[in-house]
Automatic annotation (TrEMBL):
Residues engaged in binding Zn(2+): 196, 198, 203, 245
Family annotation (Gene3D superfamilies): Jelly Rolls, pectin degrading enzyme 5-keto 4- deoxyuronate isomerase, domain 1
UniProt-recorded name of the protein: 4-deoxy-L-threo-5-hexosulose-uronate ketol-isomerase
NCBIfam families per the UniProt record, alphabetical: PRK00924.1 (NF002091)
First-level EC class: isomerase
PANTHER family: 4-DEOXY-L-THREO-5-HEXOSULOSE-URONATE KETOL-ISOMERASE
Gene that this sequence comes from: kduI
Keyword terms of this UniProt record: Isomerase, Metal-binding, Zinc
Record-level Gene Ontology MF annotations: 4-deoxy-L-threo-5-hexosulose-uronate ketol-isomerase activity; zinc ion binding
The enzyme's E.C. designation: 5.3.1.17
Length: 278
């Protein structure tokens, strides 16, 4: 069983990409498919991004030939955030219930992971981000209420939003996975502005709670030579360490940010001032 592999793209190569090239290399268009685990292996810090949507049955996390491992988490850890209906994740026989926006970290060494939904009419949608790990941290759940939500931004700049931090230096402990989510208030459409890059780690965004008639214009690329990708609900963008990651929607929305690389410091950002963007 194989995962699709996304090669690392340099700034020089991306400079010549047209719209279709950008979408093929950086956009994951289909993450949640009925009764399937859909995962993409990237060569950005060897991060795996994807989702699980159990509808009529529980879904066991597969073992993929790409990993050359006896089981998926033999040398990896993963963060999971539910963006759908209520469900549970069974980790080596222990069940963890997850409502919408709850997070579960699963440490290296967990052998059997099964994703479940409580209601087939309103299935759980588990967004997954996994990275290599050198140490086994314990499996831990955190609800959205426990994530110490922080409200920032303002309606005057169209970015009034609430940030929930789950897996990071001062939250759930991990080797290198960092995860959380941001909810934009009604009337706000901008995320992560001023934009920034992380020269020391990659990042991926999953957009959710976006009305099907609306889109987000996700900004990426070198700060002095930006590009954009038009993104729909339940689609994700993979962001290289050299790229900004920001966006503006035609309506408000939410998104999950997930990172892996050199450190666990949420505030490790190299800002690109608005006045210097091109």
């Amino acid at each position: 069983m194989q995962m699709h592999i996304r090669q690392a793209i340099s700034q020089r190569e991306a400079k010549g990409f047209d719209t279709q090239d950008l979408r093929e290399n950086f956009l994951i268009e289909s993450i949640f498919e009925n009764d399937s685990v859909v995962l993409e292996y990237t060569h950005y810090d060897r991060v795996i991004v994807g989702g699980a949507k159990p509808v009529g049955k529980g879904l066991e996390l597969p073992t993929y030939d790409n990993l050359k491992a006896d089981y998926f988490l033999e040398r990896r850890e993963m963060g999971v955030i539910n963006v759908g209906g209520d469900g549970s994740i069974e980790v080596d026989g222990t069940s963890h219930t997850l409502s919408k926006k709850d997070c579960l970290f699963i440490g290296k060494g967990a052998k059997k992971v099964i994703f479940n939904s409580n209601d087939a009419e309103n299935p759980a949608l588990y967004y997954i981000l996994s990275a290599p790990a050198h140490h086994s941290y314990p499996t831990r759940k955190m609800t959205k209420e426990e994530a110490s939500p922080v409200s920032i931004g303002s309606l005057e700049t169209s970015n009034e939003r609430t940030i929930f931090k789950y897996i990071h230096k001062d939250g759930i402990q991990s080797c290198q996975v960092v995860m959380g989510l941001t909810v934009l208030n009604t009337g706000s459409v901008w995320n992560t502005m001023p934009a920034h890059v992380h020269d020391r780690r990659m990042e991926a965004y999953l957009y959710f709670d976006l009305n099907e008639a609306h889109r987000v214009f996700h900004l990426m690329g070198n700060p002095q030579e930006t590009r954009h990708i038009v993104v729909a609900n339940h689609q994700a963008v993979v962001s290289p360490p050299w790229s900004i990651h920001s966006g503006c929607g035609t309506s408000n929305y939410s998104f999950i940010w997930g990172m892996a690389g050199e450190n666990l410091d949420y505030s490790d950002m190299d800002f690109a001032p608005i006045t210097e963007l091109r």
